[in-house]
Design brief:
Layout lengths: L4 E5 L4 H17 L2 E8 L9 H32 L4 E7 L2 H11 L4 E6 L4 H7 L2 H8 L4 E5 L4
Parallel strand pairs: 1-2, 1-4, 2-3, 4-5
Helix pairs in contact: 3-5
Keywords: Cytoplasm
Protein name: Universal stress protein
Family: Belongs to the universal stress protein A family.
C-alpha cells in the first residue's frame, strides 16, 4: 500500500519528534506529501470572569500560537531537506477534533502520531488524544508509542 498524503500532528514532546522521524521514512518510501499540524487547545476555563482573565488568556494563546508556528517551521525544514513536499497548519480547538478535521481538509490517507502511552488514572484524567483519533478517524492511524528507557 502506498500513501499519497500523510498527516503528522506535532507538539513539543519527544514522542512527537519520533513520529516525525517515522513520517519522514514513510514519505520517502511512498513519495508522499506531508502536512504537519499543531493544535492550539481552546480555553478549558468555562465560566470564569472573562474581563479579569481575558488579557492573560489572550497572551497565553498568542504565545502558544507563536510557539506552534515556530515548531512547525523548524520541523518543515527537516522534510524540505529530505526533498519531501510539506505544508503546515495550526488548528484551534480540541486536539483530536483538530487532527481529524485537518486530515479531512487536506485529504490525508494516513495519520502518523505519537502516543505517550499513559495508562490507568493518568489516561483517565489526561485523556488520550491518540485513542480518540484512533476511534474517530476514517483513515489509518500509525501510532508511535513512547519507549521507556
Amino acid at each position: 500500500m502506498s500513501y499519497q498524503h500523510i498527516l503528522v500532528p506535532v507538539d513539543d514532546s519527544p514522542i512527537s519528534y519520533a513520529a516525525v522521524d517515522h513520517a519522514i521514512t514513510l514519505a520517502k518510501l511512498c513519495n508522499s506529501e506531508v502536512t504537519l499540524v499543531s493544535v492550539v487547545s481552546v480555553d478549558p476555563y468555562v465560566g470564569v470572569d472573562f474581563y479579569q482573565v481575558a488579557p492573560m488568556i489572550t497572551e497565553h494563546f498568542m504565545e502558544a500560537e507563536a510557539s506552534a508556528k515556530s515548531r512547525l517551521q523548524e520541523i518543515a525544514q527537516t522534510f524540505d531537506r529530505e526533498g519531501i513536499t510539506v505544508q503546515s497548519k495550526v488548528f484551534h480547538g480540541s486536539p483530536a477534533e483538530g487532527i481529524i478535521h485537518v486530515a479531512d481538509e487536506v485529504s490525508a490517507d494516513l495519520i502518523v502520531m505519537g502516543s505517550h502511552g499513559r495508562t490507568g488514572v493518568k489516561k483517565l484524567v489526561l485523556g488520550s488524544v491518540a485513542q480518540s483519533v484512533l476511534t474517530q478517524s476514517p483513515i489509518p492511524v500509525l501510532v508511535i508509542k513512547h519507549q521507556s528507557s
